[in-house]
């Protein structure tokens, strides 16, 4: 175990030494790393995403990963380089997930635009709503729970993930799968009708 350091001494250590102190259980070393890198990493993420909340989320995820997996981090260069690459990779993952989600929404909008409007006029709103609710009730339990929290309570993906103790990636996948499933079921219903 490293000797106990005073906060003033922590600020004098180089980044890799701080990481090593944190690995040995010295929490103030992590706090010093957080203070040292948060603003720069946030600006890096914000430049890439141009969205404040997403940039904050990305940086928070990187620091959460350091907190939980510090012992597994193997540096081949500087800690700063490692952190910048970690932020960049999380940004790229987020952009890919958003693109996929957007493609599903666009596909659903295109389907609705191509649907025969005269047929839709014959359907009552109540019948369609009832059919959609029935199909939602048929979703697998966890998928249904995630989808309903997203659509009926308007919780963010992060809030749902926190509430259900899931990753945000799992939440986004569950919602995307639910939309795809519902789209197939509703289109089948319209075809039969």
TrEMBL record:
CDD domains, per this entry? Sigma70_r4
| Stretches that traverse the bilayer | none
Residues annotated as domain RNA polymerase sigma-70 region: 33-99, 136-184
Q: Does Plastid count among this protein's keywords?
A: no
Q: Name one GO molecular function term.
A: DNA binding
Q: Gene3D superfamilies given for it?
A: 1.10.1740.10, Winged helix-like DNA-binding domain superfamily/Winged helix DNA-binding domain
One Pfam family name is Sigma70_r4
The family note in this entry says: Belongs to the sigma-70 factor family. ECF subfamily.
What is the name of this protein?
RNA polymerase sigma-70 factor (ECF subfamily)
Task: Provide the organism lineage as a comma list.
Answer: Bacteria, Pseudomonadati, Bacteroidota, Chitinophagia, Chitinophagales
């Amino acid at each position: 175990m490293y000797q106990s350091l005073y906060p003033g001494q922590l600020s004098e250590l180089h980044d890799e030494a701080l990481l090593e102190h944190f690995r040995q259980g010295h929490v103030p070393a992590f706090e010093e790393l957080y203070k040292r890198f948060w603003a720069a990493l946030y600006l890096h993420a914000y430049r890439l995403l141009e969205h404040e909340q997403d940039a904050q989320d990305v940086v928070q995820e990187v620091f959460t990963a350091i907190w939980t997996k510090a012992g597994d981090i193997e540096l081949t260069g500087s800690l700063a380089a490692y952190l910048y690459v970690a932020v960049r990779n999380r940004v790229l993952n987020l952009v890919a997930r958003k693109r996929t989600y957007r493609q599903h929404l666009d596909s659903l909008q295109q389907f609705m635009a191509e649907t025969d409007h005269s047929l839709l006029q014959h359907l009552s709103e109540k019948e369609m709503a009832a059919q959609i609710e029935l199909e939602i009730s048929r979703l697998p339990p966890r998928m249904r729970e995630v989808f309903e929290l997203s659509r009926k309570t308007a919780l963010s993906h992060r809030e749902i993930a926190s509430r259900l103790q899931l990753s945000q990636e799992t939440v986004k996948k569950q919602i995307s799968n639910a939309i795809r499933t519902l789209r197939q079921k509703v289109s089948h219903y319209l075809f039969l009708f």
